[in-house]
């Protein structure tokens, strides 16, 4: 029997990683994106974004790279895609709609509208994008209407749980695989595609469409809730004089609570958690179940309050007025090991300080280009040392390893005032205080 051929539609963080990982698992893969520049880069084994390990994987398989397996090719032709694939993965993004909580389904809808008319033989279309519950049902109906293969062109829902910064690892070794299917054939095809991770022990959970869609949004809601829970405890610690880092360590030793995702700080950002909880609330409202998710509104507002608190701490550190004060911001991305600045708490805090009249200089190991594109009016420096030169206060807002390894004495010689605020609870207060700095962190005592 011929090996299953795979296509991937949408080549962002999710799609580019999925396509490369499928080639790594031995499949012939054809990727499509509507942005020609993206295709050109990927063909050369390069990525439009920074994701550890991804370029190596692309270079190992992209047909345009000498010495590669040649299993991974790219196209902009829907006809070629339809002709090639047995299993088509939809990996396009579903960003938050401007000025609304709901997410924008137009890229997913367009993918189905463009692909379906090309499906003249049996095929499985697999949705991986994060969508409002009920979308798969609607898209399956549209597929049946448009595909010449009729019932032989089928839909499945297979949400993705990869983390930026660990995308390659998470795709090749998923914690679990979730398959929303309507037929034994769809389940068999997905089991075949994921045979290796299943053999290595990844649980494979078979369910219906709505449950598969909800697993994704509820998992991200749980993670967001966990972060906001510890950030709420940070607020209480600030009021009561407690230490949220110690508190998190202590409660995390209880296995039922767990230690992960309990780092208090300026909160969650990125292209997923913030928009996913909002889209989930919007969808629950449409379903008449909004009361079930009102707590997510609180999760969101705790999260946004932490950014405001960071601005307040900065104001206090510089003596009450931000106007004209020089603030160095270490970190621009929403988390380390990523160049993604979408809804980044770090950049948001930097932007608020700038709007209140401070002179802000930002440095980030990988996010400079994206940060500059989003916030061109901020100052940017080529290194941490350059960013802190002459600063009245230093803010640590994304916990890159590079920042943990900074020498407080060297930085101390460059700044105007030795004040550092740790917005990620990732630096060691003792080390900085010993070097003569005043050190403050969210949810922790002043000294
Ligand atoms: C998140 C989920 O973790 C993935 O499982 C999911 O697949 C992905 O969204 C998605 O929906 O595509 P990601 O956005 O890459 O992944 O980032 P996370 O590692 O979850 O971090 C999110 C934010 O929470 C970051 O800003 C991070 O700094 C913050 N965070 C995380 C904390 O403030 N405290 C913590 O303890 C952990």
UniProtKB/TrEMBL annotation:
Keywords: NAD, Oxidoreductase. One of its GO terms (biological process) is UDP-glucuronate biosynthetic process. The active site is at residue 272. Residues 328-429 form the UDP-glucose/GDP-mannose dehydrogenase C-terminal domain. It catalyses: UDP-alpha-D-glucose + 2 NAD(+) + H2O = UDP-alpha-D-glucuronate + 2 NADH + 3 H(+). The keyword Nucleus does not apply. Pathway: Nucleotide-sugar biosynthesis; UDP-alpha-D-glucuronate biosynthesis; UDP-alpha-D-glucuronate from UDP-alpha-D-glucose: step 1/1. The keyword NAD applies. InterPro entries: 6-PGluconate_DH-like_C_sf (IPR008927), NAD(P)-bd_dom_sf (IPR036291), UDP-Glc/GDP-Man (IPR017476), UDP-Glc/GDP-Man_DH_C (IPR014027), UDP-Glc/GDP-Man_DH_C_sf (IPR036220), UDP-Glc/GDP-Man_DH_dimer (IPR014026), UDP-Glc/GDP-Man_DH_N (IPR001732), UDPglc_DH_bac (IPR028357). NAD(+) binds at residues 33, 38, 94, 130, 164, 275, 342. Pfam families: UDPG_MGDP_dh, UDPG_MGDP_dh_C, UDPG_MGDP_dh_N. Belongs to the UDP-glucose/GDP-mannose dehydrogenase family. PANTHER family: UDP-GLUCOSE 6-DEHYDROGENASE TUAD. This is UDP-glucose 6-dehydrogenase. It comes from Streptomyces boncukensis. The lineage of its organism: Bacteria, Bacillati, Actinomycetota, Actinomycetes, Kitasatosporales.
């Amino acid at each position: 029997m011929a090996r299953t051929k795979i296509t991937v539609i949408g080549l962002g963080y999710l799609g580019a990683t999925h396509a490369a990982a499928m080639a790594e698992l031995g499949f012939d893969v054809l990727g499509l994106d509507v942005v020609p520049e993206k295709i050109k880069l990927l063909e050369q084994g390069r990525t439009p974004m920074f994701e550890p390990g991804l370029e190596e994987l692309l270079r190992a398989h992209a047909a345009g790279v000498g010495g590669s397996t040649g299993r991974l090719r790219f196209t902009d032709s829907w006809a070629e895609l339809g002709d090639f694939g047995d299993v088509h993965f939809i990996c396009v993004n579903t960003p938050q709609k401007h000025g609304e909580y709901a997410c924008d389904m137009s890229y997913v809808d367009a993918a189905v509208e463009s692909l379906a008319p090309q499906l003249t033989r049996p095929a499985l279309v697999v949705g991986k994008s994060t969508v409002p519950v009920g979308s798969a049902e609607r898209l399956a109906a549209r597929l049946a209407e448009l595909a010449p293969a009729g019932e032989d062109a089928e839909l499945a829902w297979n949400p993705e749980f990869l983390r930026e910064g660990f995308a390659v690892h998470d795709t090749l070794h998923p914690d679990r695989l979730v398959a929303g299917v309507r037929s034994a054939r769809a389940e068999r095809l997905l089991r075949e595609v994921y045979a290796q991770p299943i053999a290595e022990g990844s649980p494979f959970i078979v369910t219906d469409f709505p449950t598969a869609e909800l697993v994704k949004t509820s998992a991200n809601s749980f993670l967001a809730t966990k972060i906001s829970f510890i950030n709420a405890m940070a607020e209480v610690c600030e009021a009561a004089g407690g230490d949220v880092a110690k508190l998190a360590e202590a409660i995390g030793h209880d296995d039922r609570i767990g230690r992960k995702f309990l780092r208090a700080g300026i909160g969650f950002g990125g292209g997923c958690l913030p928009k996913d909880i909002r889209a989930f609330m919007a969808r629950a409202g449409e379903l008449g179940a909004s009361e079930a998710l009102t707590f997510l509104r609180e999760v969101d507002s705790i999260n946004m309050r932490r950014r405001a608190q960071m601005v307040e701490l900065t104001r206090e550190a510089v003596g009450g007025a931000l106007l004209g004060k020089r603030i160095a911001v270490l970190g621009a991305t929403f988390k380390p090991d990523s160049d993604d600045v979408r809804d980044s708490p770090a950049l948001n805090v930097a932007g608020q300080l700038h709007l209140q009249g401070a002179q802000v200089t930002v440095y980030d190991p990988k996010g400079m280009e994206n940060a500059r594109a989003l916030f061109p009016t901020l100052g940017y420096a080529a290194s941490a040392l350059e960013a802190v030169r002459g600063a009245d206060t230093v803010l640590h807002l994304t916990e890159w390893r590079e920042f943990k390894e900074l020498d407080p004495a060297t930085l101390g010689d460059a700044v105007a005032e030795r004040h550092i605020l740790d917005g990620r609870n990732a630096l060691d207060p003792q080390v900085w205080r010993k070097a003569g700095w005043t050190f403050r962190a969210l949810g922790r005592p002043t000294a």
